Amino acid sequence: MEKRHNYLREAAELATKYFVDPATSQPNVAGLILAGCAEFKTELSQSDMFDPRLRAKILNVLDVSHGGESGFNRAIELSSDMISNVNVLKEKRLIGKLFQEISQDTGNVTNSIVIKHLNKEQEANPMNFQDSASGSTLKVEEKMPLLEWFADHYKQFGCSVEIVTNKTQEGSEFCRGFGGIGGILRYQLDIRAFDEASDYGEAAAAGDDSE
């Protein structure tokens, strides 16, 4: 019982530390959702040790069967109606839609590359600046952070950009499995059409030269 009491006190103190702004003495969150196994979460919400400023921010108290990250994600799912406008839920839905497109092979997501996106290690490797077919050195026209390029150019393509984090399970899987960059097209594209158009352009150019 003593250990339980000490743990309750620690949880209450950490809640005040992280969710109350010392500069304003006011909560820095719009709401709190308490989730956990058994009755500990309820005891915390009713305890005199729990900051009354935070008690007023409690939106719901939930039962989840697991702790850690899986329990955290389950709490988000159970609270989706309450926090529908929170960015983390928006990210989960956005990445979930991308995974759905990939798993169904709808053709609306392709792996065609139009820009070389390199991390610092790759940028230091000269092989990444050589043409794979001829071995000749590629001319670098411009270098800039990828997010900056997106911010400057995405409107030219009639698309929207969504920035997500790796703080959710879906975001972490997205970063590990796809490098953190993905796109959902409005409709399916036949890449062969671009190849045919390129061949036609070369033939027309050859005809102009012969004339």
The strand line-up of the biggest sheet is 1-2
What fraction of residues sit in β-strands?
A: 5-15%
Overall body shape: elongated
Secondary-structure element series:
HEEEHHEHHHHHH
Low-confidence stretches: 110-114, 200-211
- Overall pLDDT level: 78
- Give the % helix: 40-55%
The counted number of beta strands is: 4
Counting helices, strands and paired strands, the structural category is mainly alpha
| Count of separate DSSP helical elements | 9
Largest sheet: 2 strands, antiparallel
Write a concise synopsis of the structure shown.
The protein has 211 residues and is mainly alpha-helical. Helices cover 47% and strands 7% of the residues. Helix 5 (87-104) packs across helix 8 (169-178).
Descriptive notes:
By secondary structure, the chain is mainly α. Helices cover 47% and strands 7% of the residues. It contains nine helices and four strands. The strands form two sheets. Strands 1-2 form a two-stranded antiparallel ribbon. A hairpin with a 4-residue loop joins β1 and β2 (26-27). The radius of gyration is 26 Å and the shape is elongated. It starts with a helix and ends with a helix. The model is unreliable at 110-114 and 200-211 (pLDDT under 50).
